[in-house]
Amino acid sequence: MDIRTYLKNNVLLFDGSMGTYFAEKYRDFEGSCESANLKDPEKVKKIHEEYLAAGCRALKTNTFACNPVSYRGDERLLGDVIRAGMKIAQDAVSAAKEREKDGAHKEIFIFADIGPVIGADEETTAEAYRKLADLFLSAGAQHFLFETNAAADHLAQTAEYIKKKRPDAFIIVSFAVQPDGYTREGNYAADLCRAVMECGAADAFGLNCMSGASHLLELTERMDFSGKPLSVMPNAGYPRIVGSRMFYDSDPQYFAEELEKTAAAGASIIGGCCGTNPDHIAAAAARLSAEGQRENEEKKIPLVRPASSSGRRETQADTSPDQESENRFWNRLSRRERVIAVELDPPRDDDGEKFLRGAVQLKEAGADAITIADCPTARARMDSSLMACKLHREIGIDTLPHMTCRDRNLNATKALLLGLSMEGVRNVLAVTGDPIPSAERDEVKSVYQFNSRMLAKYISSLNENEFRRPFRIYGALNVNARRFDIQLDLARKKIENGVCGFLTQPVLTETALENLKQAHEQLDAFILGGIIPVVSSRNGRFMNSEISGITVDEKIIDLYEGKTKEECTEIAVRVSSVIAEKIRPYTDGFYLMTPFYRTDIITRLIAEIRRQEG
Fold it and tell me: Which are the contacts of 541, defined by CB distance < 8 A and separation ≥ 6?
């Protein structure tokens, strides 16, 4: 029977985890479970047979981690492992059918199991998926499961590639999500599944891994419904760590009950992921048998929510009146009024009085928002988000905290955003963040679970699906980059991911000015031109030598040679005012960076800028 016909009248039960069950069953085996396809195929076949005896009707090949990147380009070995994996599964099915003459195993579907290809550039990754498709097709694969993905990149194209070569192929694309519905890269499950739905080559979409049965049931129940089958394969609860090993203690009966509810909620394809074993699948098979097979008209097939808005440059604020009053900074930008945002670095210690006094001075001078760096140069300072909340609450000025990808994973990022939202902070600057200096890497680890583009997309998705009031997301733009064309491409991707405006690095050279003009012409986003007053010749040389992303023209540095502090202050205000005048036609406002807490310079500069504007 064709799998599509089978799904019209039946729930398809997959097997459980090969990887975790193999590790539990054969603790002395050296190497990955996939390597056993060649080293000890009987071990793999035994596990397949256990799952078949438990009652599954779909079997995943033991090939999850097999791809050209993980095999370091050894295509011969990769092909041998994949072909062996297909044959072992086929032999297990044949043996099961031979043992049970009553036809209990008549309909069993073997799926080529393909995990995510990670750690390579776009071109290499795309080629790796095509190579996998060819290897499995040459081994006789008809059914494909792309599982545990964090993004939809390359999956639609690969599905189309397979269908061109084998039109009758059945393809499932499944995403690994946390209990809140987000992947490790910050993509929302509904958005990813929608992308799969729009690909005519994929036959089903789904969720697997990272979450237990109860949480994936909740996600299934929250989704809307329409056209293609939904696949749900949860973990056996959540693991505990004993020594260096990971263990799952999930009760198979509880797992089966939740899986039965998931099928009732609309999943046509169910099974198990990490931690599940034949006991879990046997319990699920028993529950499904007790329930009976559902007729087609009783099924509910999920459809995801529509895509979110892009967050690109707008001519009017799209917030409700009560939201508008909470984000004066954005409202001025959206009304095409020029704005001034001033950066003030947070304290190195726990004394914030000087910082607060400076913020008050800047507000009184006419700053529209205070931006706060997140541990600049990867040195610990007072938390930027906490300071943003304090300023917003006590001083009543809009704040724009920087949020780096360096020190937080997705959970910590979401937790912080929830707190910011509660405090009424409505703007964030998403940046990758300076790396931990190499000498300290053995002691202080960088997280870097994602980059600034992914962070922007994650916040944008949270705006649509979680937050009652949206954050306005800003990005950084390095106008001092040698390859500014690359910076523009990255900026366009940030805009696609929800960034509404950019704060640029300081414009202190003619090259930076020319790059700013390009950005103004080519980017559909607000631009705040960066200005940092140079306060001495030594300060200028320091920035050239030790601050990434800042370039100071030698002519500017020469102006400060032999000058007193008072004279340097006058030069700083004068030079910065000239820069402001030059960049005004190509910006929607200014991003002023306060050097060494010299708010006296910045307040004078704000006054000069306002005077220039008339």
Answer: 552, 557
Beta bridge partners of 396: none
Give residue for tokens 């694969």: 141
Give Cα 469 to chain centroid, integer Å. Answer: 21
pTM (2 d.p.): 0.78
Instruction: Name the burial class of residue 176, with classes exposed (0-12), middle (13-18) and buried (19+) by CB atoms within 10 angstroms of its CB.
Output: buried
Q: Name which of 225-234, 314-323, 405-414, 490-499 the model is least confident about.
A: 314-323
Cβ atoms within 10 Å, residue 140: 12
Q: What is the CATH number of domain 321-613?
A: 3.20.20.220
Angle between helices 565-583 and 599-613 (to 10 degrees): 40
Asked if 522 contacts 538 with a C-beta cutoff of 8 angstroms, the reply is no
3-state DSSP assignment of residue 110: strand
Count H helices and E strands in the chain, helices first. Answer: 23, 20
- The encoded tokens of residue 501 equal 């405006």
pLDDT at 434: 62
pLDDT tens digits, residue range 58-96?
999 999 999 999 999 899 999 999 999 999 999 999 998
Cα–Cα dist 374/397, whole Å: 19
CA distance 399 to 341: 9
Beta bridge partners of 474: 429, 501
Same fold, 3-303 and 321-613: yes
Closest-CA residue to 250 (of 218, 219, 286, 214): 214
Domain 3-303 has CATH 2.40.30.10: no
Residue 279 Cα distances to 33, 52, 212, 370, 371, angstroms: 20, 11, 16, 58, 55
For 286, counting Cβ atoms within 10 Å of its Cβ (0-12 exposed, 13-18 middle, 19+ buried), the class is middle
Closest by Cα among 536, 483, 531 to 509: 531
What are the tokens at 239? 């693991």
Question: What six digits make up the tokens of 462?
Answer: 């949270």
Question: Domain segments of the chain: what residues?
Answer: 3-303, 321-613
- Count CB atoms within 10 A of the CB of residue 182: 25
What pLDDT shows up at residue 354?
Answer: 92
Condensed to tens digits (0 to 9), the pLDDT of residues 478-532 reads 999 999 999 999 999 999 999 999 999 999 999 999 999 999 999 999 999 999 9
Q: Output DSSP code: residue 182.
A: B
pLDDT in tens, 93-125: 999 888 776 555 568 999 999 999 998 888 999
Residue 250 pLDDT level (bands cut at 50, 70, 90)? confident
Separation between Cα atoms, residue 189 and residue 193, nearest integer Å:
6
Which of 304, 155, 177 is closest to 228 using CA atoms?
A: 304
**Nearest-angstrom CA–CA distance, 325 and 319:** 10
Task: Give the model's pLDDT for residue 437.
Answer: 53
Find how far residue 280's CA is from the centre of its chain. 31
Provide the sign of the torsion angle of the four alpha carbons 521, 524, 526, 528, taken in this order.
negative
Cβ contacts of residue 98 below 8 Å, gap of 6+? none
